[in-house]
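Troubleshooting entry. Yesterday's outputs looked truncated, so today I'm pasting the complete records for two proteins to confirm everything comes through intact. If either block looks cut off, that's the bug. Protein one:
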Amino acid sequence: MTRPSLRTITASASLGLAALAGVAIVASGEPQAMRKPPTVAAERLIAEGRQIFRFDTFGDEQLWTSVLRMHEVIATVSPETALAKGLKVDVDALPADLVALLAAGRVDLSDPAVTVELIRLNAVVGVRGTVSSTAQLTSVGITCALCHSTVDNSFAPGIGKRLDGWANTDLDVGATVPLSRRRSTTRPRPSSAPGARASTILATMRSTAPASSR
């Protein structure tokens, strides 16, 4: 029997590989070259994750609104005070005309109504709120970004482009949450039950303030 030549073996192997490639193309429904590169899917997932990180409250309005009534407190807080307590404003979320007014010093940052408008624009980092047609803040929740994002202060202190994943070391939660009008309704646990008293909890929260504001 005559042995096949190297050329014959190579040709047969090439035909076999071509056949396997054809089967793979048919099985996948489209040629490999037509598939979207993995980076497209990865970028989509990153974008979705960014949206969740920045804007998803996971339903915590039931605490901040229904229980603590923080929307009533926030509606009385001016941007000046909010910025002083470490809250941040995303300049990219502001319309161009408002940015121009801010730059010209023509926005009253002592007016709590401005805070409500900033929340309506989704410009307060980590704070999501619902504002009625009469400009009343009716609910509020917080997102991961409240504590885990800051801004680059490129426009003004506390106002700039978002820096996701950077800890907000200026945030004074201990001075903000105790403003809740419902904190006095906290019932102490029975002495036999585990847990701290309300006064102890509030003192602990105040101790979380940045060292510069204590």
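Protein two, checking that the full record survives here as well:
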Amino acid sequence: MSLQQAIFWDSIPARSQDSWRYVAYTSRSKASEQVGTSVAETLLNLIIRIIAGIVGGYTAGSAGGKPINLGTVPNSILGGIGGVVGGPVLTGVISMIFGSAHNASIALDEQAVGSSVAGAILTIIIGAIKNKMAA
């Protein structure tokens, strides 16, 4: 439950169980309208993170040469995992650096950049560990 939902729930007194359900339903719908998190937006963000992570992992594995390269498919899989897991963290860092004065198209660019860098980082780390253990 977000802070906005908690404030909204506490500000309207509920007298019966039916009115409590109405308050909970309206608070969720108003909070989701304010935040703008729909299923389509969430899936779009996930798809962007996966594709950007795959690109970052593939590029890092290919450019890293023999010590890092695990192969096309493992590099892509690790990049996708890194994009999904580490992408939100790096996207948050990018948002902190540039501030909140940006529009939606820049937010998509931030996700793509953060996820591709996270995918590359995970691919480089796993590739270096695997090749170090093999040597």
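Both blocks look complete. Sanity check on protein two: The chain has a mean pLDDT of 77.
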